[in-house]
Amino acid sequence: MNTFKLSLLSSLFLAATATSAAADTTENHRYVQAPKAKPYKVMPNTSGKVVASYFPDWKLQGDIYTVRNLPAKNLTHVIYAFLSMCAPHTYVNDGLKKMIEENCKGKEPFTATIVDSEAALDVRFDKKPEPQEYYGHFGELKKIHQQNPDLVILPSFGGWTMSEPFRAMAKSEEGRKTFVKTAVELIAKYDFFGGIDIDWEYPGGEDNSHVSWRGNSLTEAEKAHEREVFTLLMKELRAELDKLSKKTGREYELSAAVNGSVSKVAAINFAEAQQYMTHVYAMTYDFFGGWGPQVGHLTNLHATKDTLWGMGVDNMLKTLENAGVPKEKLVVGAAFYGRGWEGAKWDKPEQFPESGTEGKAHTDGSGEPGYFSYKDIMKKFVDQNGYQYGYDEEAEAPYVYNKNTGAFISFDDPRSIEAKGKFVLDQGYGGIFSWEITQDDGSLLRAMNKGLGHKTK
Q1: Which end of the chain is more exposed for a tag (fewer CB within 10 A), N or C?
Q2: Which one from 118, 140, 164, 201 is the annotated catalytic residue?
Q3: Is 141 helix (H, G, I), strand (E, B) or coil?
Q4: Residue 345 domain-assigned (yes or no)
Q5: Amino acid 331: pLDDT
Q6: Is the CB of residue 281 less than 8 Å from the CB of residue 255?
């Protein structure tokens, strides 16, 4: 997933513990007032396609978003971000380290674990809640699953910030088996979960991994070993989930979030691994961003003659298909956020935006430089403050551009997401998902469903 996924988690944790505003001092539990859920029109799923979104557990202050705000009836899947395992997390911040250390006391290495247990199990969303087994997001997820029994809720292990432990786990057969066993035990305990999602970024340790960022790339033998381990992980998780099925009578899904670039796809033996998997969530976004000076589309559906390095949703999906993933298992990624630059220069206007260079991460002083939620883009940048909206029809990609400052922000909007949904139908893919639901104003999830042909009642 993108770098923003857990960049705020530590600060939110520290702020929450440092300030006791809205705290239930009698019970010594934090109370968070959930925003009133916005009404929405139900769009029945007539296509049978996946409509999924990730739910981040850390939106408990500021722009608060809770499980109660989920438009659950218009989703087939909710993917909870993120869980991890009891293993070294060298490069995470102090807040995350503290959470993991507390939750892993007395547990075997590589035991599957909740990270932010306060958010997951303890936070109260009612000042005087009814007694229940556990509270927090998990308590709310249990309720919405009871109300929507067909909704599949998955815990996602890893994410950009917490994928480091997979590398250590891969070195140890005992560690892998411990993780597999305890991950399935966790979803058995919290029985609203309907399977497991793995977000290992990335097997092989190249490019975006923490290791290569620090100049310690894996050897070819280590890359080959992690390739083998990914398949073993899927096979063993599938076997344990099937054992659980025999006990509960329920079916359990197994999925993974993966990158569709050629090098990342080659690092996984998809032809073998996919047979154990229900869905493969293709992270078809973050093609370009403010981490580098090259300007380009974030998540364009089609690669065009001007597209650098062939970056496009269509090309990534074809790469995954050629690697052995059946079309019906591939779920296309949509971005409920944008990435942007400022100070960029374009030497070839006819190749806009791909010819843009010298960009620096765009910042307005609120959050991660170069990263904006869809809601913020609509509030601050679309046809206002010197920014002009544009749409690349060939690529199916919206953007805003400020010619005075060289600012450019690429994102998904209802038009581009609806195009992705229609593409899924036309090409026979498994569905569409998003990172992440809290950044939507409601129009993007509607577009996901509309593109798939779902209509309001």
Answers
A1: C
A2: 201
A3: helix
A4: no
A5: 98
A6: yes
What letter represents residue 159's amino acid?
G
How many structural domains does the chain have? 1
Q: Model confidence over 21-77: pLDDT tens digits?
A: 343 433 679 999 999 999 999 999 999 999 999 999 999 988 999 999 999 999 999
The pLDDT value given to residue 214: 61
Token representation of residue 426? 């036309």
Task: Give the model's pLDDT for residue 350.
Answer: 85
Backbone angles phi, psi at 67, to 5 degrees: -55, -30
Do the domain assignments include residue 401? no
Q: Which CA distances in Å does 256 have to 35, 237, 268?
A: 31, 12, 11
201 is catalytic: yes
CA distance 58 to 175: 28
DSSP 261: S
Nearest to 156 by CA among 237, 56, 241: 56
How far apart CA 244 and CA 242 sit, in angstroms, is 5
Q: Could you list the residue range(s) of the whole structural domain that residue 169 is in? A: 9-283+326-334+413-451
pLDDT band of 213, cuts 50, 70, 90: low
Angle ∠(52,167,116) on CA atoms, nearest 5: 50
The answer to the question of residue 142 being in a domain is: yes
204 within 8 A of 210, measured Cβ to Cβ:
no
Whole-model pTM over 0.90 = yes
User: Which range, of 19-28, 69-78, 290-299, 436-445, averages the lowest pLDDT?
Assistant: 19-28
E runs forming strands in 50-109: 50-56, 77-85
CATH of the domain at 42: 3.20.20.80
User: For residues 63 and 146, what is the distance between their CA atoms, to the nearest angstrom?
Assistant: 27
In the block, tokens 């998997």 appear at 277
CA dihedral 236, 241, 242, 244 (to 10 degrees): 130
**Is pLDDT at 363 greater than 90 in this prediction?**
no
Q: Measured in whole angstroms, how far is the alpha carbon of residue 422 from the centre of its chain?
A: 22
Rounded Cα distance, 186 and 80, in Å = 13
369 assigned to some structural domain: no
Contact 89, 109 (CB under 8 A): no
